[in-house]
User: What shape does this take?
Amino acid sequence: MKKIVSSVLAASMVLSLAACGSTATTSESSSASTEATSSTAATGESAGSGSYTGTPIKIGGIGPITGAAAVYGNAVKNAEELAVKEINAANGSDVFEWKFEDDENDAEKSVNAYNNLKDWGMQILAGPVTTTPSVAVAAETVNDNLFMLTPSASSLSVILNDANDESTARGNVFQVCFTDPNQGVASADYIADNGLPTKIGVIYDSSDAYSSGIYEKFAAEAEVKGLEIVAAEAFTADNKADLSTQLAKCQEAGAELVFLPIYYQEASQILIAADKIGYEPEFFGCDGMDGILAIEGFDTSLAEGLMLLTPFAADAQDEKTQAFVAAYEAAYGDTPNQFAADAYDVIYSIYEAVLAGNINGDMDASEICDALKTHFTSMTFDGLTGTGMTWDATGAISKNPKAVVIKDGAYAAM
Assistant: This one.
């Protein structure tokens, strides 16, 4: 059996895939009169405090609920809806009104969705889900001074005007997921610190900011840690139908571990190709790997033993996780992934800041944005994806990952 090791460091899956699917937009709104569930996992009893009595605040969500990235967008959409319903029901009156727009993982459509939500009266943005749309929308939110909190867009270019200069922070854009550099550095650290093979091949997408950004940081940290990169093979979005050549070069170079800072669709091709040629390195990926078990027709036995560093494991035994998973499964008939957990934390962290800052829906979006910036950079938040989470002035989060492993075709806590 092929050994596969993968490190997923963000709850964020941040795609820059080519958009596909319909152009239809799906909108959902939630209020206290809709069905409520019993979970208040992210903030415990605070959701039941009944301390909010102001005008409901309008939160908009954006993400791909159709197209190639829909597995992420739908998880985010469901979790946001669930959190809003819980908060409103526990409060006894509406704290939030919520509406979600489909962007099909397309930047132009994401900006259109943003404008539709502005027309609706949006005061806070929970999203977008993926990187390229988030970068485009972030620029719009800066112009409007509207607070944006993405669950899963991990590129520094989302929160910084210049990804190489932290002094260029947009100021109003925050992340619940790890940044890409953190993933690259932590992946190299994990390989070095846990006695994994040190002769490493890398296969990455040089046309994608997410993939190439992680690789650059990984390569730099690998040198510091004494890891030897024996092959670094790139592909592009226009040339990824067959990645067997890149894999073969890793094999020829003697790579005992192949690092894959890419998305699960391309990763599945590589795992299948490796199985066909009998190449059995350890495979180590990032958060783009999440979703590989959901590919239709993919032999999930190829992913058996896949280890991920992630902020969320659905079978963890803590009370918060169990309550969230039970509520999510009851509402949507599916087990939540890390993107759902991150999105749930987005809504609950906003709620905590709303209560702390006496923010209400009678304030305009710019006033709310200024208040949220103050509270997010000073508060400590305990959620599903971490305890003691904090944000710095750039909008980047600090939290610790957890380890899971794919066992019997499912994620299991380690």
